[in-house]
Amino acid sequence: MPAVMEIVRFQLREGVTDEKLLAAAERFSRKVSPSLPGLERRELLATGEHSYLLLDRFASRQHFDEAPAAIGTNPLAEAFTACRPTRQTAWPVEPPADAVEDVVINYREEDFVQFVVDDVAKGRGAETEFYAHVGSR
User: What is the Cα–Cα distance from 119 to 122, expressed in whole angstroms?
Assistant: First the structure.
């Protein structure tokens, strides 16, 4: 299988220093990278003032596809990606994506249960409204 190269260009998020990014990248490389299946090389290159190029080489497309699941919600990975203005990466011919503020979910299970309860209530409301209109015809 041919190797896969992931190339990500990014500018630092406003308020993030180069030192913070480099420290997060070093921790990620030391603690997370060794557990990524098929990761052959990871390199972070400075391309200008607060601009970087991240190069990841995976042994195969399958290994590349498995990487997000292997990383999961690892805090070291999140600390590294939090240095970027957005987790979205534009293709070279596209304009950069708008910055998105991350929403911290402290109580995942409770928040999910509340989401389901709210969604069911919304659905019941739409169903009640639908039947109210059907009956009036």
Answer: 5
